[in-house]
Amino acid sequence: MPIKKFLVLVAGFLPLVGIGQVSSDDMALKPGDPVVSTLDSLLSIRNVLRLSETDMVSKEVADPNAVVFSNDFIQSRISKISTPVPLTFNNQVKRYIELYASQRVQLTSRVLGLSHLYFPVFEQMLDKYNIPVEFKYLSIVESALNPVAVSSAGATGIWQFMYNTGKLYGLNINSYIDERRDVMKATDAACRYFKEMYDIYGDWLLVVASYNCGPRNVNRAIARAGGSKNFWEISRFLPAETRGYVPAFIAATYVMNYANDYQIYPKAPAYTFYDVDSVGVKEKVSLRQLSQTLDIPYDVISFLNPIYKRGIIPGEGYKLNLPAEKISQYIANEETIYALSGKELAPFSVALADNADYVQVKRHVKVRKGESIYAFAQRNDCTASQVKKWNRLKSNHLVAGRSLVVMAMVKQTPAKSVNDNIAENKKVPDVKDSSTVCADSTEETIVTSGVDQKNNVQTEVKQHPDFIYHLVQPGDTLWNIAKRYDGVTVESLKKANHFSTDYTLRVGAKIKVPAI
User: Fold this and answer.
1) Which of 69, 105, 284, 418 is deepest in the core (most CB within 10 A)?
2) The domain 467-514 belongs to what CATH superfamily?
3) Per-residue model confidence as pLDDT tens digits over 434-460
């Protein structure tokens, strides 16, 4: 059997998308409309878009200042879009235009912003397969350009492939990776599907329809319509969802082409397509380690690498997407990153023992020959950004032999009496069991502690046999902190620290960890 016929036969039983069908023939948009729900999913990636609170407009309220145009004006504008796709304007299309241009203006702005990251990829791939460039707008209907979108039926990624369909089109899905979330590979798979369907139907709107409901449903509708291959003539025989899906595609195409006319402007993510580059990895490495070592917010590096389901790049043969300015840092420190990645991120914690308190000490540590800022930071149990902050460094370049300030939490034994300290020329209290052991230290200065530094008087030492302290590091969450301590759970951390449900950890904060 020819491979193309085989693919079509199998695809007929595998709908590409997994959104449930609406049960009514009424085309009025409702909160449960799958296109509406998809657009609303963008609310979940607000942090990556770095939006302010003022950008958070209720998804249920239409913009009272939205621009409204007459039907004739819209029809005229749609007719001016140069494309082989037969774009029609009618009441069904108008309802979705109102969704994008009035009811969900703020979310449409986010789609516009995300388009700067993804559309260049789509355009290259569509051109490769000689598919109309307007098909890039189909991704808006599918996922609203949310790379980690997952439908209730399990369809995943920007192009919303179901598991079996993704496998059929060569996308690798296992415990560590899901190539349905790989923008390049998923787009290539979608384009191959578009091309195969066009070879069958010869009509681009029927290709769009088949992407939603599968060719079997399209074939049935064609047969019931007497053999017509016009979408509008066969639409009454298609699933209700598909009857809205194609008009939504036309509406998205129109609004994205004329967004400025509606005064809709992009709310861009931290990076565009041209701000991101890729580098091959040689060994297994975690995104959490990369976030900490390269000083990239974890939500950003995860957003740029949605393919890795567990936040781990399995090893050689896989690519890492990074902000372009971080590529050289990664390459320069690649071996150090691999060496560190095998270790679980150690907690920077301090345990309160009997007759002991903890102080923060300023150390002066010499930079070793050939040492990068990341290796220096790892040696001193801190982050590169902390080293830069403590030393007011403007770049990551370190000079061998130079002494840098490193702040460390260390344990001190009970202080001697004031008279004893005076007799010993007011020595700094004895420091033992430092959480940061630095053989190259040349000086220690206590900067915060339970000691009154001005008078060198020891304050009362409080013993806490029921818990230890954990100093919050960049990238820490209650979940990964709990994992580092046997028997500790997120709930026990919340209870010990009286955290509310919406409490946010602050880097540098000291939280209690119950002793189990």
Assistant:
1) 105
2) LysM domain (3.10.350.10)
3) 333 333 433 444 343 333 333 333 333
